[in-house]
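Annex B, item 7. Sequence and C-alpha cells for protein A, then protein B.
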Amino acid sequence: MKLQLSLRASDLKNAAGIGRGTSDPFAVVTHMDTTSTVLGKTETIKNTLDPDWAKVFVFDYELGTPMHVAVSLYDEVRKGENISMGSVLFDVGSLLGAYGNTKGKTIKRGGVVFARVGKFEENGTMRLKLKGIKLKNTEGFLRKSDPFFELKTREDSDGVGTSWDSVFRSKTVKDNLSPIWSDAVVSLGTLCHGNMDRPIKICVYDYESSGEHVLMGELETTVNNLVIAKEQEEDGALSLRKKGSESGKIVVLKADIYGVENLSDDMAAASVSDDGVRSSIKAKTPTFIEYISGGCELNLCVAIDFTGSNGDPRIPGTLHFRHADGSKNDYEKAISAIGSILEKYDSNQKFPVYGFGAKFSGVVRHCFQCGPIQEVDGVGGVLSAYQEVFRSGLIMSGPTVFTEVILTSAKKAADAQVAAEKEGKQAYSILLIITDGSVSDVNATAEALSAASESPLSIVIVGVGEADFNSMEFLDEAKSEGGRDIAQFVEFNAHSHSPQSLTSTTLQEIPNQLVEFFTSHDQFPNATVHANEDEIVVEAEEEEIDLSLDFGDDAEITVSGGEPFSRNVF
C-alpha cells in the first residue's frame, strides 16, 4: 500500500542569529533503516517559525513491517552551510494508529514537528501552467504585488467538516500583476483523490517577507474544468474572488494529464474520453488505509499454549522457561514482535489474554483468563499476564484444542463491532494464538474457523518449538462457505532471525481480510478523521537522530554519516 506524508511545524527556535531576521525553514525526510535513504525535501518557506509545507512524500508501507522516518529541519543559507534546527523520528505505524493519523514530536532545540499520513492514490499526474491577468494589487500605489499560488485539496471529515489542505505552492513572481508562473507538476491522487470532478481550490497570495502573506483572490474548480479552460485559452479564463468581488483572472496555459491508464490493481477502471481525459471514477473497492483513516480500530486478543508438550517451565531449554538474564523465550518474542505492531492501532490498548491446555483443580481448561484482570494494558501487560499463570497452580496438560479460544474471540470481536457501530465507528479484531504443536481435532477447528469467519476477526497462529507442523497447513486453506479466509499459520523458527520477517509474514493478509469482511457486509469506511489541534498527541523526542546529510550542488541530498539504524533483532 502507498502512503503520503505531510509535515508542518510550530514555534521553532530561530536559527538565523541576532540581526539576521527569521529563519527560512525546510525539512528533509529520511527512511531510517540499516541503509538510510533520503525520500526528499520540502520547499523552503521564508521568514517563519511556523512552516506548513505543501510538499508531500510518497512511500510504500506494509502493516507487518516496522518503518521509521526521520525529519531533519534546516534554516536555508544562501552562502555557506544550512543551519540545523533539529530532528525528530516518527514511527509510521504509530502515525497510522493515531487519531487523525497525526502526531507531533517536540524538538530538543525548541518547537514541534507535526506529521500526518494518509492514503496515496496512484491516479496519474497533472502538469499545470497558469497565468494571472489584471490581479488586484494589494501593495498600494507605489508598488506591485509579488504573487504566488497554492493548489488546495478538499478534505471532508466527520465532526470537523470541510477543510482545504495545500498540496502545491508555486514560486513567487516579483512585482507583477499579470504573472506567468512556472509549471506545477502534481499527483492527481494528492490533488483530488483521483476524482477529476472533485472540487479543488486555486488561491493566489501576495508574498510578504514577514510570512504574513496576503490573499489576493481564490477560486474553486475541478481538474476537468482546468482541462476545458486550457482549450478555451483566454476565453475560458477563471475569475478570482475576494470578499465577494472579482480580483483578477486566471488563464490556464497548460493542463496536461499523464498516466491515468496506469492505475494500481486495487483501483477500479475509470472512463476516459476520446481526448484522453478521465472524466469520472467508477465505484472502487475501499482500502485498508481508508478504514484505518476513518477511525476503524484493531483489537488484539492473545491465546497461549500451556499444554504439557512445552516441557517443564523450570527447566532450561523448555519453551516456557524464563531466563534469569531477562532475555525472552520464543513465546515472549512472538508476543512482543506482533503485539508491538498491532497495539498502535488500538486507542485504549486493552487486550484480553487467554490460555489453553492446562489443568486447574483436576479439570483441563481449553480457554481460561491469564492473570487477575480481564484485559491488560499493552504488550507489557500481556507479558506480565503470561508469567502470572505460572504462579497460579496450573498443571500443564493437553490435548491442543483451539476451538474454545477461537469461538470466544469471535464473540468478543462481534460484540466490539456492535459497540463501535453504536458510536458510528468500526472495530476489527486479531487473535494471536501461539502454540508448540498441532491441533488434536482438525475437523472441529475447521468448523470453528468457519463460524468465526462471520465475525470481524482474523487469526494469526504462530508455531514455536521443533514440532512437525505439517498438519497445520489446513489452517491456511480453511475457508468458510462464503469464501472468507481468516487464518494464517507461521512457523516461528523460520523467522527467528528477525522480528520484521516474522511480523511481515504473519500480518500480510490482515489488510485484505479486514476489507473483505466489511465490504461483504456492505460496511464502507467512515469519512477520514481530522484531528483538531487539541486532539493531536505531542510526544517528547528523547534524543536527536544521529544523521549527517550532504547537500550536493545538484540539489541531491545523501546520508553521509551517523549510526546505522536497525531495530530488526529480537
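Protein B:
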Amino acid sequence: MKKIFLTSILLMNLTLFGCISPVPAINNDDQIVPEKTTKPAENNNVLDLSGQGLTEISQEIFKKTNLEKLDISNNKLTGALPAEIRQLQNLKILDASNNTMTGVPAEIGQLQNLQTLDLSNNQLTGLPYELGNLKNLKTLNLSGNNYSSQDLEIIRTNLPANVNIIL
C-alpha cells in the first residue's frame, strides 16, 4: 500500500475542497492518509473531522456553506463554538460531542435547518436561549454537561413539542 504524507493543514484543505473524501480515522502522529482517499469526495456536504485531536476549528470550515453534516466530535476542542457557525445555514446535523467545550454561541439559533444537535459530554455550564429558535430540531443531546436546568426549561418552552431532548 502506498502512503501519502501530508501536513494536517494541507489535509484539511484537501478535504474542504473535495479533493479527498472525508477520512473517519487518521493517525495524526504519523500524518498518514491511505492513498485511496485521494479519490474525489462522494458527498461534499459532509465533513467528518471526528477523532483528529483538533484543539480549534479552522475558519475555512465556515466557508463551506453547503455543509449539511459537520462532525467535530471526539477532539480536544475547548472554549465555545465559534460564532461563525451561523454561516452554515444548510447544516442539518452538528455533532460536537466528546470535547471539552464550555460554551455555545447564541448564533447557533440561526441554523434554521438544524435537525440534530449533539453537544453531549462537554463542559457546558450554560445554554443560549437561542437554542429555542431551532424550529426544525428533532434531537438535542445535552447529556454529560453541567448546564443550568433553568436555561433548559426556557429553551424547552420555545422548541417544538416533539423534540427528543437527551439529558
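Comment on protein B: Residues 1-41 have pLDDT under 50 and may be disordered.
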